């Protein structure tokens, strides 16, 4: 092509992001038919019962009163003073006594995943995750010369499939010197499933066993907890961290932390890749490597978002207020999810096992066709490889009650048309 100088690796077709493409169709339908006639279940943002964006009042107040210097100034590459402590308080309730923790600021959870994929895999290696996953996982891997491999998330009894994980992890360790396992829990995107402490115990035991079997290989275990504050109570959701203990010397544990959901700041683009270090030296080496990466790709991360995180978590009174506000948001989304899930069972719509969170996944044979049929009913969902994603976070309770029957009919029609 004339007047085009892209390098070979950049010559690729870009398919519009399915989530944002579906959202644009929904917005066009709302403009034509009105909001009451449309069920827009596309983006992963909290909307209230009037369809307005939900932002924690404490966060909004801080944004509107922030000094301009805190808005426009650079932030240190490694985070503003107090950032690492604030991340720990947000994740654990206090500075960790069990791990040597270092946090690298990133543009949202997406940036944290980027750092994990780039720094903990070699070129051409595969990242391992469940077969129900957030679509950009694959994009991030491919953008950085890596691949994505998956294993079946659920067994025949709709429990986390530890057996499939063991087989897949063992296979990767036979082929790669570096292995990165990413598990998105609690409140998995797109299923809303949360691993139990017993399931997490089995995964950690598996890592210990593989660490001993492959002493010359490196195993990185990464928990993507972007939705942790929209699962269960604080105490119950943090039980998964108690499972991480007695890790082998050839393993490291990482956590993807995101302010997008927990602090309702999707557009502010702030999160962190967090190292739960077994030694101080390992944590410091992690921080140095991540700082180099950060300087090389985005320099520093939005200062105002970091300031809000620090000012909330290092002030107990402010934190209590923000936590109480978030709990109301969480309860609303949970009620919507339970409404949809309960009605789906009543009308015979099969869903993946749902516990809590922003999303519910609906398996089907032809997701693209089913989503297309639903557009004709003014119901907009996100088609994925294995089914449809519905977003209780963005849909009113009344529409969560209406949607399952409409979706069931659309899936039946899509399967009849593809016979």
From TrEMBL:
Entries under Gene3D superfamilies matching the protein: Aspartate Aminotransferase, domain 1, Type I PLP-dependent aspartate aminotransferase-like (Major domain)
InterPro entries for this protein: Aminotransferase_I/II_large, Asp_trans, PyrdxlP-dep_Trfase, PyrdxlP-dep_Trfase_major, PyrdxlP-dep_Trfase_small
Keywords: Aminotransferase, Pyridoxal phosphate, Transferase
Aminotransferase class I/classII large domain boundaries: 42-403
Subunit structure: Homodimer.
Entry's family note: Belongs to the class-I pyridoxal-phosphate-dependent aminotransferase family.
Entry protein name: Aromatic-amino-acid transaminase
Source organism per UniProt: Enterocloster lavalensis
């Amino acid at each position: 092509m004339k007047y085009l100088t892209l390098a070979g690796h950049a010559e690729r077709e870009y398919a519009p992001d399915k989530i944002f493409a579906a959202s644009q169709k929904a917005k066009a339908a709302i403009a034509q038919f009105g909001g009451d006639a449309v069920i827009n279940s596309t983006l992963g943002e909290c909307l209230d019962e009037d369809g307005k964006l939900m932002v924690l009042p404490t966060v909004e107040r801080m944004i509107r009163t922030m000094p301009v210097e805190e808005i426009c100034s650079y932030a240190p590459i490694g985070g503003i003073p107090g950032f690492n402590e604030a991340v720990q308080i947000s994740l654990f309730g206090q500075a960790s006594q069990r791990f040597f923790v270092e946090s690298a600021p990133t543009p949202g959870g997406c940036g944290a995943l980027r750092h994990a994929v780039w720094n903990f895999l070699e070129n051409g290696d595969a990242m391992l995750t469940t077969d129900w996953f957030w679509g950009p996982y694959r994009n991030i891997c491919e953008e950085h010369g890596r691949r994505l491999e998956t294993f079946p998330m659920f067994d025949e009894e709709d429990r986390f499939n530890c057996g499939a994980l063991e087989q897949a992890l063992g296979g990767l360790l036979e082929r790669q010197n570096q292995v990165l396992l990413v598990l998105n829990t609690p409140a998995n995107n797109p299923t809303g499933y949360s691993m139990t402490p017993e399931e997490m115990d089995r995964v950690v035991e598996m890592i210990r066993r593989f660490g001993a079997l492959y002493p010359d290989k490196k195993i990185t275990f990464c928990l993507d907890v972007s939705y942790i504050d929209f699962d269960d109570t604080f105490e119950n959701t943090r039980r998964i961290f108690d499972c991480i203990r007695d890790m082998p010397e050839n393993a490291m544990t990482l956590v993807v932390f995101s302010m997008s959901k927990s602090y309702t700041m999707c557009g502010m683009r702030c999160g962190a890749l967090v190292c739960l270090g077994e030694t101080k030296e390992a944590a410091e080496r992690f921080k140095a490597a991540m700082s180099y990466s950060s300087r090389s790709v985005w320099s520093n991360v939005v200062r105002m978002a970091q300031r809000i995180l620090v000012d909330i978590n290092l002030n107990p009174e402010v934190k209590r207020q923000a936590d109480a506000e978030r709990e109301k948001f969480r309860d609303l989304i949970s009620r919507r999810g339970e409404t949809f899930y309960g009605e789906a069972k009543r009308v015979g719509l099969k869903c993946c096992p749902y516990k809590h969170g922003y999303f519910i996944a609906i398996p089907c044979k032809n997701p693209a066709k089913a989503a297309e049929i639903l557009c004709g009913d003014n119901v907009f969902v996100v088609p994925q490889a294995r089914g449809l994603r519905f977003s209780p976070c963005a849909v009113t309770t009344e529409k969560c009650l209406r949607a399952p029957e409409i979706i069931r009919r659309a899936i039946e029609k899509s399967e009849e048309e593809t016979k």
